[in-house]
Specification:
elongated; 66% helix
Length: 860
């Protein structure tokens, strides 16, 4: 996909999206082209596409790059850097040189946003190298043009060469390339004092940048144009262009762009004597730019604010603000802002009586301006020094103020700043007059008058040129708008019929997708995913009537974000959804700007168009569908018809979901009953351990596994001694208590892999995988001693019992024909061993080895 696209191509993609004709790759393309046109929508489109893309798909890297650019424009630099690194790594792993180049272009933009001019230029150079490995000549041209405009501040000596190289690469440049080349030329003209030429160039670029989707460049162009117009005293147009740039920045929601525009407005207000407005605007600018304190824009905004505070007579506050600007600017190398702030601080210190500190600060600022080759800032420093020495003279330095002013005059003459030259000439005339040098004072006065005449003539010429530019620009815009309207009308006529048919087809497809969903959250997400293609939608809410018919349980999504679930009584007088449910009719509400619904929830957006529709299945009300827009007059007859149609589908989906939920509950109850029956079938009812059936099944399975793996296994048979006597003397309840207690001791003291079962009456068995006959005898005898020493407590009386144990093990290898009977024979062998223990006197452990029985221990 291309790096930039014009509005007509984006409009085509949008139209096809609304008709459901856009492939997944084209959805990603649309999201990419929307990244600056509408960052929020670009994010939403990217998220939708990401969920549809399979893991590992190459387009995931493109979506991460898009998210990184949006994060950077929102001044979320840490997140932007992480996403950029993630996408660049993916492009490199895929050997995608084009993607790598795009990553470097984003690095250049992030550097520009931070005010890192050299980083901006370096990244553009790396992008050009990456593009050189591809066949995408347009991207190579964009990178070269970007580098040319970046070099104006990073390497001004190379700008003309870079412009020539870029133009040679693009003899017939596209709109994006022409925009970047034109901006580079205009910025160069601006810095060399050719303000009108720069303004003319910038004015021609503004519309072109917007149509190419270069919204950040469009804002920058507007601010640069405003600064150029201000320099030629066309403050009306400077204000207009700055306001326009600010509106674009606010609509985009980009904090740094908003702050930069406010800072320029504040500076313009100061220059036109509106100090109160200047202070308000600059304080707001500082708040916006505070989100990225390391940005150069933040440094300059603080410096501008200190100027206005000083002009307003707030010397102490101006000093604090200037010191803050210096503190912010030094680490990031924002030397222009640092020097400007130090000059203000010097003036403020002088006003506060700290004259020596003021002189030192001004001299340090002058040295920094020379070191960093910033001659534009030197005249103001010399003027500050002149003011300090004039207001606080020292012996034998009466000539210093005039020396400083003459140096400032020399520099401003080179820079072509008529307004500042006039101010310095006036100051020189006054300084000479105070010093008693009336002849020089008169000469400077005459020069001031001559300069005033030249300045007025140039100002008039500039105003005429500005008016002509504005007139031509308006003519071009009107002609372009006329042609666009003709083309749009023709396209609208051709598409109207197709659109109507497609809408109906889309509604049917959406309806089918909704009604197959049996989960209400999925129904809501389907609505959210598709409604935005059919109407202007900011919020979608699905309210379902509870089983008692008294409450609406509402789920909603606002601007792609799920909202907390709310419960609204059907009797709520403030809820329009409740009213819609009670009256079973559609409700359409429209609110003008500034109006707010009584049911508005704090923390949510103000909606200016709201539609509520009852969800009916036959005569039964199942809920309410709510659709809202933050735009005024968003829902006409067409939209209401669409919503009404969708309501029918949603009602069916809600009804189906309810039936499915009831079936699910019934299924859960049946599964629970089945599990209980299985438990009863495999568990001994009295003791809770496995019964005979369960134990024998486990024994058979383990015997087969043992033979396959040729691993040992053993079985222990156990019997409570003289159990009949307990029943006869104490009763069956006492006998049951003994059985429960013994089974707990056996079960709690076995290994995790062992199985204890009750075979019937007082007879138990233990299955011991991975155990030979000696190990089984050891386990059995340990259990025997444990039971002998732990009496059963029944009716506060202890009942002491003992047990006899018989052990047998399965041979490691059996003939194949003997495997089927192995479990039965093993149990019989253990039973023979148990019989031997009984005959020997009980409370013993016996084992069967090679068919011969032997005692493991004697009675204790």
């Amino acid at each position: 996909m291309d790096f930039y696209a014009d509005d007509s191509h984006v409009a085509t993609l949008e139209s096809r999206l609304s008709l459901g004709q856009l492939l997944l790759e084209q959805r990603v393309e649309l999201a990419w082209f929307m990244r600056q046109r509408d960052s929020r929508r670009a994010q939403q489109l990217a998220d939708e596409a990401a969920t549809a893309l399979p893991p590992g798909h190459p387009l995931h890297a493109r979506l991460d790059l898009l998210r990184a650019e949006v994060a950077g424009l929102l001044a979320e630099f840490e997140r932007a850097t992480q996403l950029l690194a993630q996408s660049k790594s993916a492009f490199e792993a895929a050997h995608d040189a084009l993607g790598v180049g795009d990553s470097y272009m984003l690095s250049a933009l992030l550097a520009a946003l931070r005010g890192d001019n050299r980083g901006n230029l370096a990244a553009a150079g790396l992008a050009a190298q990456a593009y050189g490995l591809t066949e995408d000549l347009e991207r190579s041209r964009i990178a070269a043009a970007w580098a040319a405009q970046a070099s104006v501040y990073a390497a001004p000596d190379s700008t003309l060469r870079r412009l020539a190289e870029a133009r040679a690469l693009a003899p017939w440049p596209s709109a994006p390339v022409a925009t970047l080349l034109g901006l580079a030329e205009a910025l160069r003209q601006f810095d060399t004092g050719e303000q009108m030429q720069a303004a003319a160039q910038l004015m021609a670029l503004a519309t072109q940048a917007g149509q190419a989707g270069m919204v950040h460049m469009r804002i920058r162009i507007g601010l640069s144009l405003a600064a150029a117009l201000s320099n030629v005293d066309d403050n009306d147009n400077a204000y207009a262009w700055t306001d326009q740039a600010l509106a674009l920045a606010r609509r985009a929601g980009w904090p740094l762009a908003i702050g930069d525009a406010l800072a320029l407005l504040g500076s313009l207000a100061r220059e036109t004597g509106q100090l109160d407005r200047s202070l308000l605007l600059l304080k707001e600018a500082v708040e916006w730019l505070g989100i990225a304190p390391e940005s150069r824009g933040n440094v300059l905004a603080h410096a501008y604010l200190s100027h206005s505070e000083l002009d307003a007579g707030h010397a102490e506050q101006a000093l604090l603000t200037a010191q803050r600007a210096e503190q912010l600017g030094r680490p990031v190398g924002a030397w222009a802002g640092v020097i400007d702030a130090m000059t203000v601080a010097a003036r403020a210190q002088a006003m506060l009586g700290e004259v020596d500190t003021a002189r030192s600060l001004a001299q340090e600022a002058l040295l920094l301006a020379e070191q960093h080759e910033l001659p534009m800032w030197q005249p103001d420093i010399y003027r500050a020094l002149a003011e300090i020495h004039c207001n606080h003279p020292r012996p034998n330095e009466q000539q210093l103020p005039m020396t400083y002013l003459e140096r400032a005059l020399e520099l401003t003459a080179k820079q072509g700043n008529d307004k500042e030259q006039l101010e310095i000439l006036d100051a020189l005339s006054s300084a000479c007059e105070r010093a008693g040098d009336y002849a020089r004072a008169l000469r400077y006065e005459r020069r001031a008058r001559e300069r005033l005449a030249v300045t007025e003539q140039r100002r008039l010429s500039n105003r005429m040129a500005a008016l002509e530019m504005r007139y031509r620009g308006e003519q071009q815009r009107e002609e372009a708008q006329h042609q666009r309207m003709l083309a749009e009308a023709e396209a609208a006529r051709a598409q109207e019929l197709s659109t109507s048919l497609q809408v109906l087809e889309n509604l049917g497809r959406i309806g089918r997708e909704i009604t197959v969903n049996l989960d209400l959250s999925s129904v809501l997400q389907t609505l959210v995913a598709h409604l935005g293609k059919l109407a202007r939608v900011s919020y979608v809410g699905l309210s379902v009537l509870d089983a008692q018919g008294r409450l609406l349980i509402r789920r909603g999504v606002e601007d792609g974000r799920p909202m907390p679930e709310r419960r609204v009584s059907l009797d709520d007088p403030n809820s329009k959804a409740a009213q819609c449910a009670r009256e079973r009719r559609e409700i359409l509400l429209e609110y003008a700007a500034g109006q707010r619904a009584a049911s508005h929830i704090p923390g949510t957006r103000e909606m200016h168009a709201s539609w509520f529709g009852p969800l009916l299945v036959g005569e039964d009300l199942v809920g309410v569908l709510t659709i809202q827009s933050a735009e005024e007059h968003a829902y006409g007859a067409r939209e209401q018809l669409i919503f009404r149609t969708l309501s029918a589908y949603v009602g069916v989906a809600v009804s189906n979901a309810r039936v499915y939920a009831r079936l699910g509950e019934q299924h859960a109850r049946l599964a629970e009953a089945e599990a209980e029956m299985r438990k009863l079938a495999t568990t001994d009812a009295l003791t809770g351990i496995p019964n005979r059936r369960h134990f024998l099944a486990a024994l058979d399975a383990e015997a087969r596994r043992s033979q396959r793996s040729q691993r040992p296994m053993a079985v222990v048979m156990a019997d409570i001694d003289y159990f009949k006597a307990i029943n006869d003397t104490l009763g069956h309840a006492a006998g049951d208590a003994v059985l429960v207690h013994v089974s707990q001791l056996l079960d709690e003291n076995k290994r995790t892999i062992d199985t204890v079962g009750r075979l019937g009456g007082e007879e138990f068995a233990i299955l011991l995988p991975e155990t030979d006959v000696d190990g089984a005898a050891e386990v059995a005898d340990r259990l025997r001693r444990l039971i002998q020493g732990d009496a059963t407590l029944w009716q506060n009386q202890p009942i002491a019992v003992s047990m006899s144990f018989g052990c047998a093990a399965l041979p490691a290898q059996l003939p194949p024909e003997a495997t089927d009977q192995a479990a039965t024979e093993l149990l019989q062998a253990a039973d023979r061993a148990l019989y031997q223990a009984k005959n020997a006197g009980r409370n013993l452990t016996a084992l069967l080895r090679d068919g011969q029985g032997e005692l493991y221990s004697a009675a204790e």
